[in-house]
Design goal:
44% of the residues lie in helices and 12% in strands. The chain is an alpha+beta fold and 338 residues long. It folds into two domains: 2-160 and 266-325, Triger factor/SurA peptide-binding fold (Orthogonal Bundle); 166-261, Chitinase A, domain 3 (Roll), CATH 3.10.50.
Length: 338
């Protein structure tokens, strides 16, 4: 459960919005107004982020992004109200512990400090503490959601809890002009263990991002890597080096597969705490009194549609320069939002 909560935090995202309408509030949540200035701040912040990262701001679906940011504002206010109503302590050792884990991950993503990450993602420590307190308190409260409601939520969203087939692999990338070297290196590494492979990757791989980690590119599912690399990795035996290098547009890949996990169908009992969080928030959002400011309301067909906590996510590593420039997954995420 710790990993799921932390992933939800690291993965917690805000999307940008279009220019503000002349109104004193963007949205009211249970009669509590969220100032239009909050919306304007998000707009300015995310437009700047998009442009700095080289995305085409003019091509962004402004209506969709507007509703995304409004849902973020609604979520923030709903959770603030709930924490106040329940009198949750936001300074407990448990909350501190969860944030300490987040801070550890943040430093590996190129952010010097937690405060830098908060600034880069337009968050505050109080909002993060409120989210953590919500997740911790609701996930452990067996009476928070009725069993039949949990079952219905799981039935409606079962696919989201399935685990896809994954492979964990390392590679050594050799330049396309060095075909002979790639084939000779693959031959020399036949029978090598992971430690030997990693040492060679550090010395020989032109993918400097993964080479520093012994060629490790982590775990991935289908559709995340370039086709040639993916097909080879998913068909290769675990614990061996590829008999021949695999050519892609990035070069020749010599692959070592460390693990291969089959797809697994989700089970309610295995996801009970996360389901409790999601079902509780969905009910909270559906029963909230929401009033939109002038020009802020969604299309009528979407007015009652809530965006669950899980789907409002950051990508804190978007600004990080990584192995994606040369590694096998470089073509994934080309249109990712900041």
């Amino acid at each position: 459960m710790k990993k799921r909560l932390l992933a939800a935090l690291v993965s917690l995202v805000l999307l940008a919005a279009c220019s503000s309408a002349p109104a004193s509030f963007a949205v009211k949540v249970n009669d509590q107004a969220v100032p239009m200035q909050d919306y304007d701040d998000f707009y300015s912040f995310y437009q700047t982020s998009y442009e700095q990262l080289g995305y085409d701001w003019e091509g962004v679906d402004k209506e969709q992004l507007k509703q995304s940011i409004l849902e973020t504002l609604i979520q923030d206010e709903l959770l603030r109200q709930l924490a106040e109503e329940k009198n949750w302590d936001l300074q407990t050792p448990e909350v501190d512990g969860e944030l300490d884990q987040l801070k550890t991950q943040i430093t590996t993503l190129g952010f010097p400090t937690y405060d830098d990450w908060l600034l880069a993602n337009h968050r505050t420590d109080e909002k993060m503490r409120t989210l953590v307190a919500f997740q911790q308190n609701i996930s452990q409260d067996e009476g928070a959601v009725a069993p039949e409601v949990l079952q219905q939520y799981f039935d409606d969203n079962a696919a989201a809890y399935d685990t896809p087939e994954t492979v964990t692999a390392s590679h050594i990338l050799i330049d396309l002009e060095d075909e002979a070297k790639a084939y000779q290196l693959a031959a020399d590494l036949q029978g090598a263990d992971l430690e030997t492979f990693a040492e060679t990757a550090r010395k020989e791989s032109i993918d400097t991002g993964s080479a520093a980690d012994g060629g490790n590119v982590g775990s991935f599912g289908r559709g995340q890597m370039v086709t040639e690399f993916e097909d080879a990795a998913f068909s290769q035996e675990v614990g061996v080096v590829s008999a021949e290098p695999v050519q892609s547009r990035f070069g020749y890949h010599i692959i070592y597969v460390q693990d291969h996990q089959p797809a697994k169908q989700g089970v309610l009992e295995d996801n009970i705490e996360q389901l409790r969080i999601m079902a509780y928030y969905t009910n909270l959002r559906e029963n909230a009194r929401i009033e939109y400011g002038d020009g802020m309301a969604p299309p009528s067909s979407e007015e009652d549609a809530a965006l669950p906590v899980e789907e409002i996510t950051f990508s804190p590593d978007e600004t990080e320069t990584s192995a994606e420039e040369t590694a096998p997954d470089a073509e994934a995420g080309e249109a990712a939002a900041p």
